[in-house]
Design brief:
Elements lengths: L1 H25 L13 E4 L12 E3 L3 E4 L6 E7 L5 E5 L15 E6 L5 E5 L2
Antiparallel strand pairs: 1-2, 1-4, 3-7, 4-6, 5-7
Keywords: Signal
Protein name: Peptidase inhibitor family I36
Length: 121
Amino acid sequence: MRKMIRGAAALATAAAAVVALGGAAQAKPAGDWAGCPSGAVCIYPQDQNPAVKPTHVFYSYGAHKIYNQYGNHWVLNNQTGGATAALCTGGSGTGCGGRIAAQTGVYANLTPINSVSLYRP
């Protein structure tokens, strides 16, 4: 019986170690991502695929007007702490689409987009 309990305890410890290592391996370290600084939301030139060097970099929360952006662009949200971003048809952050989660990006048609909004977590 003691061998069985020790075996179960060893198995549980090994499983916990695998879960801990798996979680750490999947986490993205804070830092630049495709030229987008940590804590920023970046827009890249039209049809630049893969995203390499952003043309717009936004750090502060709130709406940011964008001008003369047509066609498909990468928009990367490299903010930290769960902050989100959205692409908006209104110039003052109105008419926003779905939120872009932190550490993710979208390849979007920016022709109808007039601002980018950054939201606190």
